[in-house]
Each structure stands twice: as C-alpha cells, then as structure tokens.
Please model this.
Amino acid sequence: MIDIKKILDISIALSSERNHVKLLEKIIDELMDISSCDAATLYLKENNKLNFFITRNKTLNEFKGGSFSKIDLPPIEINESSISGYVALNKKPLNIADVYSADNKFIGPKKYDAITGYHTKSVLVVPLIDRDDNVLGVIQLLNAKDKDNNVIAFDKVLEEVIFALSSECAILLSNKKLYDDIKLLLDSFVEAMVKAIESRTPYNAYHTINVAKLCVGFSKYLKDNYQYNITDSDIEELRLAAMLHDLGKIITPLNVLNKASRFEGKIPLMKMRWNLILSCLKNKLILNEITKEEYDKEIKKINKACDFILRLDTMGFVKEEDRVYIDEIINYSYDTEYGLLKLIDDDEVDDAHIIKGTLTKEERKEIENHVVYTSKIIENIKFGNQYPNAKFIAGAHHEYLDGSGYPNKLKDKDLSLSVRIITICDVYESLTSTDRPYKKPIPKDIAYRILTDMVKEGKLDGDLVDKFKYFIEL
Model:
C-alpha cells in the first residue's frame, strides 16, 4: 500500500526546504522508502548528457553525490542504448520487471552488475520534465522489494505516483535554474559596474574585489569558529553589498579620484611662475633696481621655498613647524611687470594646507560623497526578499559606532553585524592596498594596530577586530 503521508511529506518539503541539494536527497530517500526499493540514482541533464548527481545503494552501502562524496562516473549519452538515456529521449517512464529477461534490449544494467557485483532485476525510470516540456534529468529506481525482502516488479500504480512526484521535482530544478539565472544576471551587472569603476582609475582596481573576498572569508571564519548567527544567505548578501559599496565612485570627479599628490598637475605651471619671478628679479638687478646683496638674499629664499614646495607635494604627515613655514611661503609675493606673482597662488593655498594625504577639505568631501552616490545608484535596484539589507550595508560602510562616520552619523545601535564587518574589511584593505596613489601599502601588523586604535576611539567593534587579527594571520 502506498503511504500517502510520505507523499505529502515530499510535497511539503518541496515548498519549505531552501537547500535544493538536501531537498533532492530527501526526495530520493523518500522515493526509495515509498517504493521499498534497494537503490536509486538521480541524473541531471547537461549538454545532451545525463550526469550522475545522487546515487544510493543499500546492498553495496553506497551513498554518493549531493552533499556526500563526488561521483566519479562518466555521463550517460541521451540515446536509446541505455535505459536512462531512452527515458530522457522519449520523455516517458520505463518500468521493467526483469532486466535479464529475453525481451529486454538494454544492456546497461548488466554491464553495471558485472563491474560492481550487484544484481539488478526490476527497474523503474522516470523523466524529470518541466512546464515547458524540457527534460531536466532522470530518476532511476532499482529492485523493488516485498515485505519478505524479495525483489519484485515496481507496482504500476506506484509508477504513476512517482511520475507525478518527479514532475514536482522538475519544477524544483526549473525554479532553481531560474534563480541561478537571475542571480547570474545580478552578479554580472554588479561585476560590470565594478569594471566600469576600475576602468576610470588605476588606483582602485582591486579594492572592491579584495573587500568582498575579505568580507566573505571573515564571515565564514566567524560562522565556523564562533557563536555568530551568520547564515549562507547573510554571507552572500554581504558579498553583494561589498561588490556595490564603492559604486558611487563612478560619479566622483577623476581629478579627485586620481589625485596622487597635493599639487597634482599644478607643479609645471608653478615652476613656470617661479622662473618668471626669478627672471624679473634678474632684470631688476640688471637695471640696478635692487642690489646684488638683495638679489642673492631673495634668490636664496625663493630656492629654499621652491625646494620645500616640491617636497611638500608628496610629503606624508606635515609637522607643526612645517605648517608655520608653509604659511610664511604663502605670503611671499613679488611685484613684477606681469603683475603680482606668488610662489603659492591663491588656488594652490588649500593644497598647501593639506596636513595628511593629498586631498583638500572640499576634495575629501567629494570623495565622501561617493557613499551618497552609491545609495542613490542602487536605490531602485530590486533585490527582493533574498537580500533585504544589501542596500543599507553598501551605503553604511563608512559609518562608525561612535557616530563620527558618514554620511548619516549612525551609531552602534544602528549598525548591524554585516555593516561592522564590511567597515573593518574596508579600512584594512585601504591600509594594506598596493594601488593607492597617495601612500605605500602598510604592513599587516601596523594596519591591525590602526584598527585597534580605532577601537579605542570607539569607531570599530573591538570583539570583531580581535577576531579579525586571527583571521588575517591564517
């Protein structure tokens, strides 16, 4: 008698289990139980061939494929020479009471038996057909048994039930393929946008991908080694957010994005102005408008200042005494026949006042706006229920626990685990990056020390930073 409850269990599982591999394993196990058979194989179709996906054999004690070990068997051609190939080709079930009977034309089971020592007798094979009448695979059941463990033929009524269940299984596979196609479309879109950013500047080429890898690796590390409630969906959502987090840089002006030094692109013009000042002083000396002593003193002062400006262009942190000297140089001006000329012109003053890095306050604000641009760009992307927090995570990667981050000055209560992870990974990658225009990469230990300093300042999650140290040392 067919167990209706088991059939209902399979139907319920089809709508509740999210892991399709586990679900397919459950379906195969339940079908074996319903039919009281000894062995089963699930084949999936690919390129006009049937690939082994799951195999079960109680007598041989073999449980392969799916979430178990890989099945190292060649695929089966879809043609009429094999039972499974025949079923896939003709899209109809095949129920054979005894494969060794004289009227059975298929030799596949006999070859299998010769290799394994197993004895196949009864066989029931059903195709997996989707809504569009496409064959997605085949389920093969071997050796049905009665209550006394004798091998018998598969019941005709059971054949209809299993064929019906196989249709539900095909729907599952079809939906999984549709999901994979949609995910592939989304991933390819994201990767295309990342490449668009990379093509704009050589200084951000690997940052996005590296941050995404760090986020995924660190999340898996936390999941596997600590009591963090992180699901595979959470990790995938974080990966997607990490791939999107710098998308706004596609709008950031290139002169800001690519600014490798304080006076980026301005030095040639500045040198021309300095030479003009020197020439005018030379003329004044010739015309006896200034003495030789005054000339030598001024030339020495100008050369010293110009040499310092050239060093300042690529200088790291500017010390206090140098800042005083910069303010002094800014006031150097010379009345020439071409008008009043300065060593540092008015539109270069903000660059000269940069204490650290290469960006002025206005340029820094422009860079920070990339997070706002990111949020605006992805605002209308429909992520569905699968990734409900991807937009927020991508737009919050510069927020700090103490509220000092940007753009929304969020605090610890507003920042999820995923946001805390991406923030740590983003800071660390930026510090250790080899492709930044304004600095050399920082060694791991120093980068970690900076992370711990940010913890002391209340910006980063101390528990996560502690664990991050062990993660990056793996």
In short: The beta strands are 37-46, 49-57, 62-65, 76-77, 94-96, 123-129, 135-145, 151-152, 333-336, 339-342. The chain has a mean pLDDT of 88.
